[in-house]
Amino acid sequence: MTQISQQALEAAVREYRDPYLDKDLYQLGAVKNLASEEGGKVTLMVELPYPSKGIAGALKQIVTNALENVDGVESADVHVGQKIHSYKVQKDIPSVPGVKNIIAVASGKGGVGKSTTAVNLALALQAEGARVGILDADIYGPSIGMMLGVPEGKRPDTRENKYFVPMDAHGLQANSMAFVVTEKTPMVWRGPMVSGAVMQLLQQTLWNELDYLIVDMPPGTGDIQLTLAQKVPVTGAVIVTTPQDIALLDGKKGIEMFRKVEIPVLGVIENMSVHICSNCGHEEPLFGHGGGERIAEEYDTTLLGQLPLHMTIREQTDGGTPSVIAEPDSEVARRYRDIARRVGAELSTRERNLSGSISSVSVTEH
């Protein structure tokens, strides 16, 4: 019987490089246990630091093959899981109970598909194995409820006349000003009232062990956005833009705003990057080309992904079943899941918040 070399096993494991962080599993600290037993059986436990259900199968296959090529190995049993930590926020603002990380989704102007992106990003993170919530901070035009198919007039339960129980929508924990007022009530409020209302929704909702809370920020970079960026304990921000020059200009302002309050910008999502004809499938860049890449390069941040302008995205979102849920195997859903893994991987490189919520562990592949 050939003696299995531990060194050869480790070398085989190192052959796999993470597609998002460009490191091997040892450099990531993802190898939790590697052992060989009598009869040539090898067991490996891997724990990735970001939501990664979509790549767990491929990782398992690649590493299993590499281990089974080592002399003396008859079979390899690879387990892939994930562990999401809490990461540092700006100016050490106290974290929100039940929430490990808050990701702000923002845009410099309205009409770029920010809310659609926020909802699909939340659902994509969930599809990748994370516990996710979404808070609609767009007080003047709350749309998350409709996009998630929450019936009009449905109200969240309360506890002790003080706390909201988040709504369950497609498995997400959700809260929005739209759940508290009717959509026919115009919000004629000044800035301080708006930021006060958002803080109340954030802090008085009983979020239940969330890995990520997505906050759909109001569009723009004015007083309300700045106040929220200073008061909400944000782990990172994602900027949504379109390739149009005017949208890019506003996207840059969004990046500047977050940098001013020391919130790391995780990257840029370029929405409506190409129009896909629903009849013939022809692609045409209606709003210009390469804008997201330029802004990411200029500000030394990442282009997280590009999404097409496609009628089905709007129809599905307006109908209360966003693309990631409506067509989980579609190209659009695949892109959102890729963006979700990118965002999670980028966050995992940040400094940990040791006073934050306890990390959660989930095994996604056996």
Which architecture of the largest domain would the CATH scheme give at its second level?
3-Layer(aba) Sandwich
Q: Into which percent range does the helicity of residues fall?
A: 25-40%
Unreliable stretches covering 5 or more consecutive residues: 357-363
How much of the sequence lies in strands comes to 15-25%
What count of structural domains? 2
Number of strands: 16
Q: What's the SSE pattern? A: HEEHEEHEHEEEEHEHEHEEEHEHHHE
Distance between the termini: 28 Å
Which structural class matches the secondary elements? alpha/beta
**How many DSSP helices?**
11
Rg (C-alpha, Å): 22 Å
**Strand order within the widest beta sheet:** 8-9-5-10-4-11-12-15
For the biggest sheet, the summary is: 8 strands, mixed
Superfamily (CATH H level) name of the largest domain: P-loop containing nucleotide triphosphate hydrolases
User: CATH class of the largest domain, please?
Assistant: Alpha Beta
Residue-averaged pLDDT: 83
Q: What is the approximate shape?
A: elongated
Fold-level CATH name of the largest domain: Rossmann fold
Keywords: ATP-binding, Hydrolase, Iron, Iron-sulfur, Metal-binding, Nucleotide-binding
Organism: Marinobacter santoriniensis NKSG1
Protein name: Iron-sulfur cluster carrier protein
Pfam families: FeS_assembly_P, ParA
